[in-house]
Design brief:
heterodimer, A: Cytochrome Bc1 Complex, Chain D, domain 2, two-stranded antiparallel ribbon, globular, B: 2 domains
Chain lengths: 148, 154
């Protein structure tokens, strides 16, 4: 929403009169339409939030991602085992293949395919924690990584 | 074609040499190349964490064993939905190596096959130390065209 208003303001500086009025109306209409047309990532996160039944937290997501867990496979006690502690940098699988940064600012198409997101949470949570992650855990982690 | 894929002139000689040297369970590799993974689903799914190893590296018995335990795939959960798994499994069984005899226990690690260890022992230490390689299972670190099935030294 903020984004749309910023654009409107900069356009307003170069225009005036009836055109400006029309533009502002259009901007308002776009603002209203935004929540409906939220991107696929926002929809995925909203889905986890709805299932979790409580507000998601980026701080909790970061702690979960950085944390050392028990119950998983011995070689991978943490998300950082492969993704490293710097989510802006490339990670590496145990077989040596590079993993694109998890930070959305570095890899903009991250978390835009719900099937892919679910597949990797299922596998990696079982690998790291020995169980599937809860909607709250998934939502928290995605909230944090989206802000990075 | 830029890549040296068509180097088959030496093939009969190399194959004969290989047989003489007792390198029998290495079919398809006599020319330093194997048939590349052509199924797009197999290619995508099997190359997520490592290079999509070509089916011709192991016999069907090995692939059956590997596909039977994807939730514990060399220390990681690599499970797939049943439909995708069946498709990729079929592809690997169809294009698997045909060895004259299958060792017991049935091998599941390409890096532990006798011909592999023989040809890679001198690189084992370096592979582990060099973070750019990480492991001997990272074929493409040294074999630039490995994914396309070409394994001659680059």
């Amino acid at each position: 929403m903020k984004h749309v208003h910023d654009t409107g303001a900069s356009v307003a500086r170069s225009l005036s009169g009836p055109i400006l009025g029309t533009l502002m109306l259009t901007a308002a209409a776009v603002s209203l339409a935004l929540p409906v047309s939220a991107g696929p990532r926002e929809q995925i996160i909203a889905g986890y939030a709805a299932k979790a039944g409580k507000p998601l937290s980026a701080a909790r997501g970061k702690a979960f991602f950085m944390g050392t867990h028990k119950g998983g496979k011995p070689d991978t006690p943490s998300c950082t085992s492969c993704h490293t502690r710097n989510v802006h940098q490339w990670g590496r699988t145990r077989a040596g293949k590079p993993i694109a940064p998890m930070a959305v600012s570095k890899t903009p198409d991250r978390f835009t395919d719900p099937k892919k997101v679910e597949k990797w949470f299922r596998r990696n949570c079982r690998t790291v924690l020995g169980r599937e992650c809860t909607p709250l855990e998934k939502g928290d982690v995605l909230t944090w990584l989206s802000s990075q | 074609m830029k890549e040296p894929f068509a180097m088959t002139s030496k093939a009969p000689f190399v194959a004969a040499l290989a047989l003489l040297a007792g390198l029998a369970p290495r079919p398809g590799l006599a020319e330093g190349s194997v048939r590349q993974v052509t199924d797009p689903v197999a290619k995508e799914e099997c190359s997520a964490c490592h290079m999509a190893y070509q089916p011709a590296f192991l016999p069907a018995e090995s692939w059956k064993k590997i596909f039977a335990d994807l939730s514990n795939h060399f220390g990681e959960d690599a499970s797939l939905d049943p439909k995708t798994e069946a498709r990729i499994r079929n592809y690997y069984l169809r294009h698997a190596a045909r060895w004259r005899s299958i060792p017991k226990p049935v091998p599941i690690r390409i890096t532990e096959l006798p011909w592999f260890t023989r040809e890679h022992t001198r690189f084992a230490a370096r592979a582990k130390q060099d973070p750019k390689i990480g492991s001997l299972s990272n074929c493409t670190a040294c074999h630039r065209y490995a994914e396309r099935g070409w394994f001659e030294n680059d």
